[in-house]
Amino acid sequence: MRESFENFTSIFKRTSKTAEGASFAAERPCQCSPGWPALETTANGYVLPAEASSHYSLMTNPDLGPFVARCTGCQARYPHPWVIPPGAPMPFDWAHD
Ligand SMILES: [Zn+2]
Questions:
Q1: How far are the Cα atoms of 2, 25, 76 from residue 94, in angstroms, in the given order?
Q2: How far is the CA of 3 from the centre of ligand 1 (A)?
Q3: pLDDT values of the chain reduced to their tens digit, one per residue, 97 residues
Q4: Most-buried pick from 28, 37, 49, 89 (CB within 10 A)?
C-alpha cells in the first residue's frame, strides 16, 4: 500500500502543476463559504470545468490517472469523486478515445 501511495504521490507532483509551474491544487480543505462553489481541473496546461459526482470517471479516478480537481475559489484540492462534465471543451487527443 505504501509503495503505491508513493507512486501516486510522485505522479500527482509531476502532473498537478500549472503551465507556469505553480502547484495546481492545494492540499487543504476548501475555505469558501459555501464550500466548493465550483470545480476545475487541468490537463496539458489547459483548465477544464469539473463537476462533483457520486463516482469517479475512468479519466478522473486518482487510482488510474493523474488528474486532480480544485476549488475555483480557493484552489483547494477536491477530495471526493468528480467528473469532467459532458460537453466540456476538450482539445485533447485522449478526449476522442
Ligand atoms: Zn474553496
A1: 30, 22, 26
A2: 31
A3: 455 555 544 544 445 555 555 678 998 999 999 999 999 998 777 889 999 999 999 889 988 887 899 999 999 999 999 999 988 876 555 554 4
A4: 49
